[in-house]
């Protein structure tokens, strides 16, 4: 069964000439892995690299906002809207906060995660993509949720527990959620 991948993610990867997706890996680096593990790494690693590239892009946007704020002591409405949107995404209080403090807090949260760590956690949590949650719900990291509309009840959940495992439409949505 092939996994659904959002075509926008791969077209974004293929069309982004400024992003370096080259790794130091060659086919010989995968020889020690069985076929299932090779397929998993070759599917998930580009998604991880892409997400880290998005993080770098967001950090760059934040640094540009920081430079404009330092230079002009203010931001225009478009820049403020961008700052507010980023603050909301990363759960940073916006109202009644100094904009430079918001930017500093964003820079602490909008940070890359080493590809190897993300890949290792995805492999462990999903059994190299073989777990029920990975196969049926594209959940690579076993993220918890308490929202009944966004999750699946684990079969062996302890009595009285209310957590669910987040379900996703595609692997790339699972990777993006992990990074966030």
Summarize the structure.
With 180 residues, the chain is mainly alpha-helical. The chain has seven helices and three strands.
Draw up the topology in text.
Layout: H1 7-15, H2 35-72, H3 77-89, H4 99-109, H5 115-126, H6 132-137, E1 144-145, E2 151-152, E3 164-166, H7 171-179
Antiparallel strand pairs: 1-3, 2-3
Helix pairs in contact: 2-4, 2-5, 2-7
Explain what this protein looks like in three dimensions.
- There is one protein chain.
- With 180 residues, the protein is mostly helical.
- It has helices spanning 7-15, 35-72, 77-89, 99-109, 115-126, 132-137, 171-179, and strands at residues 144-145, 151-152, 164-166.
- Mean pLDDT is 86; it is low at 12-22.
- The chain is flat and about 55 Å long.
What key phrases describe this protein's structure?
3 strands; 4% strand; mainly alpha; 3-stranded antiparallel β-sheet; 180 residues
Helix coverage percent? 40-55%
**How many beta-strand segments?**
3
Helices, by number, come to 7
Order of helices and strands: HHHHHHEEEH
Q: Termini, distance in Å?
A: 28 Å
Structural class: mainly alpha
| Sheet with most strands | 3 strands, antiparallel
Q: Quick one: overall form?
A: flat
- Uncertain runs: 12-22
Q: Which sequence of strands runs across the widest sheet? A: 1-3-2
Strand % is under 5%
Mean pLDDT: 86
Gyration radius, in Å: 19 Å
């Amino acid at each position: 069964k092939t996994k659904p991948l959002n075509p926008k993610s791969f077209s974004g990867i293929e069309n982004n000439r400024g992003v370096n997706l080259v790794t130091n890996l060659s086919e010989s680096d995968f020889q020690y892995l069985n076929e299932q593990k090779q397929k998993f790494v070759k599917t998930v690693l580009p998604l991880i690299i892409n997400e880290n590239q998005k993080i770098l892009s967001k950090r760059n946007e934040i640094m540009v906002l920081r430079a404009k704020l330092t230079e002009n002591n203010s931001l225009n409405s478009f820049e403020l809207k961008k700052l507010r949107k980023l603050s909301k995404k990363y759960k940073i209080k916006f109202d009644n906060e100094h904009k430079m403090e918001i930017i500093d807090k964003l820079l602490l949260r909008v940070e890359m995660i080493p590809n190897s760590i993300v890949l290792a956690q995805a492999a462990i949590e999903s059994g190299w993509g073989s777990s029920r949650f990975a196969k049926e719900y594209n959940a690579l990291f076993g993220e918890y949720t308490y929202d009944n509309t966004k999750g699946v009840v684990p079969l062996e959940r302890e009595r009285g527990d209310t957590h669910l495992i987040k379900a996703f439409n595609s692997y790339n949505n699972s990777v993006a959620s992990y990074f966030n």
